[in-house]
């Protein structure tokens, strides 16, 4: 990979290549030992991405789920935020395609580039060429909310009932946000625990495509913070954001909790 490629292309190409390596690992190792496969997947992808970024962008810092957190990133102008294998559980399950590779660049206070590879789905969504969003969703179409298949926030079912929406459980956060980007779902909402690497790359692509992305109280998603915890998120079509944020507040008020306590 040439170092003259722009940051958007670097994010896309690295995420795609890491995903291809994970597919080969999956095929070679099989699924008989899922814990071993998960460990190998995390390590293989991290080592490739960390090494490639060190070669292509040697002056930049890296924050990775699988690497030691270097405090020097807090003073850096450019930080790559990567999740080498998002949806590790799904990666080690036969037939699951809802896992991803995330590569994002944070620069001077905001997300500047990003890519989400969905290797088992044969695609990579990136800020090189963000997905095109239809101008309007069909008015008679039931809302679809995608949320965690293993840790769904308790308030989502109540919110879905209030809105008459269908709940669509999925694995990787990247796969869920890409589902909104691709029109498979209308809303992704999560509360109860995530980190910057879980959302940085998909949020970069979502915002480039024109989606709304925020905390569930409507505040900004902040990256390259001293504490990388970023526990909740809402991603949706922009015309739905006001209604959804109000619905989340109503559910929280009914339960006697603040919006960050609705998990």
UniProtKB/TrEMBL annotation:
Q: Name one GO biological process term.
A: 3'-phosphoadenosine 5'-phosphosulfate metabolic process
Q: What is its EC number?
A: 3.1.3.7
Q: Which residues bind Mg(2+)?
A: 65, 83, 85-86, 198
What does the record give under GO molecular function?
3'(2'),5'-bisphosphate nucleotidase activity; metal ion binding
Q: Which cofactor does it need?
A: Mg(2+)
Source organism superkingdom: Bacteria
The entry's keywords: Hydrolase, Magnesium, Metal-binding
One Pfam match, by short name?
A: Inositol_P
InterPro entries in the record: CysQ/Inositol_MonoPase (IPR050725), Inositol_monophosphatase-like (IPR000760)
Listed name of the protein: 3'(2'), 5'-bisphosphate nucleotidase
Q: Which organism is it from?
A: Nocardiopsis composta
